[in-house]
Design goal:
By secondary structure, the protein is an alpha/beta fold. Helices cover about 40% and strands about 15% of the residues. Bound molecules: pyridoxal-5'-phosphate. This is PLP-dependent aminotransferase family protein.
Length: about 475
Amino acid sequence: MHILSPQLSKEHSLPLYVQLYEQIKHDIINKSLPVGSKLPSIRDLSKHLRISRNTVETAYQQLLAEGYITSRPKSGMYVKELELDVLQQETKPFPYQHTKNTPILDGPEIDFEYGSIDMNAFPMKLWKKYSNQAYKQEMEEAKSYGHHKGENHLRREIARYLYHARGVRCSAEQIIITSGTQHSLNLLCETVFKNCDQFAIENPGYDRARYIFENHRFMVTPISLDEDGLCTDDLRNSNAKIVYVTPSHQYPCGMVMPFKRRLELLQWAGETNGYIIEDDYDGEFRYEGRPIPALKELDQHDKIIYLGTFSKMLLPSLRISYIVLPPRLLQSYSAAFEAYIPTVPRVIQNTLYYFMRDGEWDRHVRRMRLLYQKKHSVLVNALTKHLEEAAEIVGEKAGLHLLIKVNSQLGEQALIEMAAAAGVRVYSIEKYRIQQSTDGKPLLLLGFSKMPIDQIEDGIKRLKEAWFA
Ligand SMILES: Cc1ncc(COP(=O)(O)O)c(C=O)c1O
């Protein structure tokens, strides 16, 4: 692999990514970088040159688009044999290239990524301690796989937590431990819903849930949202009997479903003899008023299948989530799955059990709530201070992400690329929409759970510079 050492300068009138692109292109044309040579990975080069990954990525993308390099899946970028037309072509302009106002940055990349957690807050020491205990126990009990629904004592702890924290009344019997929310949905599709043909989902909504329904060849009916979340009138007009919803903090748009809409939804389920799948993925994080209990709290007629996860509070890579089934569905679940082996390793289940049993989980939840509350308020304050009228904040009352509706004539993609050129990553919600949106201002998603608190304001200032300077 060729280590590139281009001379980049912040004083130059061209942005760093254009300088980098020009120099690599120059090296390819004069064969200092011979055909077939491998370029350093984006990560390595950004480290080596101490510039952001976006800078390298944007330069590589341009070289790819112009045919100087090629990308080999799972291998990397390689210098291509140049065709005559590549050599003769004029350099295409970089999209949204700014030479005057865009700040030339080589500081840290600021990534408003959604879905990751603040690893500094993960209780590593305690987790290791309980994990050691769990391994010791495993050595004694390794001869069995464990219960197909998951470890009994862990399910009891989860039931206790759900009652105190989310207002959900259920027994350990009703809980099934799974390897993630998609796994939960998969199990439901294979068991209690195997004879159904149609699912209603929120639009925009959680794409990973939609894939599961589609892969099971169910008809998927998108239901629109209003400011209260899923429109129950539209749901009534569909023929669906099952709906997947995120009432505590609609994903991705962020509404918290108010009480009245919750009752309407339950009424729909009663009248149609239908079921509601409630995905309460980040309901623990609430920033205004008292925590809102789960929709399941109101479920007097056992119409709700509740989905929970440890990914947001603890660690996504643990792959541990759960289903709470209404008692009347337990039999059909067990009939299909009694002979199955649990998928979450017992060691992980038992580590989590010890963690919960000793009160560490409750302490951890309190700490995480405080931490994310702080990050949330720094982000909201920075948006209010720096983007004022330029962006409206949407869906900020709960969860680990919010959206901004940007007062700009540009499209979402253009804004994302301009932000990237300024070293900031913000995200589109396009992939969550079933139909392309035609209305209104660009809407962008900003996650804040992983973001170091002291980078938040800098990130928002850079967005202002990139979009409005
Ligand atoms: C809407 C929604 N549901 C559930 C999850 C969690 O999924 P899992 O339990 O598979 O980690 C996420 C994670 O980002 C999510 O966005």
